[in-house]
Amino acid sequence: MAHHKHSHQEGKSFLHASKTCRLGTVLVLTIGFFFVELICGYIVHSVAIFADAIHMLSDSGALIIAMVSVRISKRKSAKNTFGWVRAQELGAMVNCILLMSLCFTILVQAVKRLISIEPVERDKLTLYIVVGIIGLAINLMALIILRGDMAHGHSHGSNKNKSKDKHDNKKDEDSVEIGEGEHLCDDEPADTVVNHGHSHDSKPSTLDNGKTKNVDKKSEKKKRKGLDGGQMNIRGAFLHVLNDALGSVIVVLAGLAIRQWPDKAWINYIDPIASLLMLSMIVVFTIPLLREAALVLLQTAPMHIEVADLQKRLVEQVPGVLAVHEFHVWQLSGSKIIASAHIRCHNLSEYMAVAEQVKDFFHKEGIHSTTIQPEFIDQEIISGTVDDKECILECLKDCSMNT
User: Fold this and answer.
1) Model confidence pLDDT, tens digit, residues 212-261
2) Cα 133 from Cα 143, distance rounded (Å)
3) Contact in structure between 365 and 222 (CB atoms under 8 Å)
4) Which of 294, 231, 334 lies closest to 19, judged by CA?
5) Kind of pairing between the strands at 323-331 and 337-345
6) What is the pLDDT, as a whole number, of residue 169?
7) Inter-CA distances, 50 with 123, 247, 274, Å
8) pLDDT (tens digit, 9 = 90+) per residue, 362-397?
9) Are strands 369-376 and 337-345 parallel, antiparallel or unpaired?
10) Host H or E run for residue 329
11) Distance from C-alpha of 87 to C-alpha of 167, rounded to nearest angstrom
12) What is the mean predicted confidence (pLDDT) over 19-47?
């Protein structure tokens, strides 16, 4: 057994090193060709090649984020209690802002070329086309490498799940362990009032009628499928390179058009128009990423979650929950969602029966880290000292603005 375990660890280390090496190779190729395109664009007087160079730079930024943010996001920190899981979003935002500023520079140059025509150097037209072809070849090579990493990550995850299933107890075959695959709650700070995170010891909750409530396996697998931050980064880099490959195709087509119809009056507009077309592709791809990163950093609720509706359904679907207030839902990162709430119950014994159902409710909504503050108000309401919508543990006026 010891020998088998040792061999497995060596294989895992080898795969990790191989993946890093392949990503590093793609990064070196893209950065190197970025400088090549800058020089060739200056020699040929082509704005389209400059635009493709900027696109190649964005690929390099995406690859750097994919490699660095995964390592940083796994680091523990006593000061940052959630760790560095937002490194991906911060890096993506910096990359997008830099890319948009460079796009503006290229836009100015393209407009100037449309107003004051400056033809492409015809005697260097072969270099124009060759640069586009080499750029396309590098992008296709990068796509093959990144596609292989995405496929490897998927198959490795499947094998991990199979291994997990083999070690599960027979009595739990028909149930899904809630929260499997994400350990965010295990690292929560200890000063929360009541922290209902998941654990690998979670059991299917039991309803009032005594029937066991199981979570649908297919829906749970879909939720767990997107939890791998590394795979999300690789997929983002893959889409970057795919977009750049289309830009290289535009450069090649523009060069061939200039060679085919050199005497046409409109041919002088091909190069700046091609650059504007590539810029539009970059902007269309970048703005959604910038918006997504900004919304996460602003701690907004995920787009697929209606907070008011979720709060209403929590009261309606979980027996024993009298009211919910101070209800907050926000994204820690792209796949990690946090929720906190004040939940009102009659007494402690009733709350302990309700707590497991509340946790399961949030799990089914894809929220795997919840902090719940219980309130027990039966005597106060009977005596009329507490309003039904009033928070019992409300902060003072001086600190309410900071909560």
Assistant:
1) 344 344 444 444 443 344 555 666 677 778 888 888 899 999 989 988 88
2) 15
3) no
4) 231
5) antiparallel
6) 40
7) 19, 11, 11
8) 999 989 888 899 988 765 554 454 555 556 666 555
9) parallel
10) strand 323-331
11) 34
12) 86
Q: Which fold has domain 186-213+302-400?
A: Alpha-Beta Plaits (3.30.70)
pTM reported for the whole predicted model: 0.65
Nearest Cα residue to 177 out of 223, 215, 123: 215
Q: How far is CA 369 from the centre of its chain?
A: 17
| CA separation for the pair 403, 395 (Å, rounded) | 8
Closest by CA to 345, choosing from 368, 312, 323, is: 323
Convert the pLDDT of each residue in 128-168 to its tens digit.
999 999 999 998 988 888 776 555 544 444 444 444 444 44
CB atoms under 10 Å from CB of 339, counted, come to: 23
74-122 residue pLDDT tens: 777 777 777 787 887 888 888 888 888 888 988 998 999 899 888 887 7
Rounded distance, CA 84 to CA 20, Å? Answer: 20
The answer for residues whose C-beta is within 8 angstroms of residue 150's C-beta and 6 or more apart is 231, 234, 235, 238
Tally Cβ neighbours within 10 Å of residue 313. Answer: 14
- Structural domain spans, the chain: 2-166+226-297, 186-213+302-400
- For tokens 């015809």, the residue is 122
H or E stretch at 112: helix 87-115
pLDDT, residue 195, reads: 47
> Does the 2-166+226-297 domain belong in CATH 3.10.50.30?
no
CA 279, 282, 284: angle at the middle one, nearest 5? Answer: 105
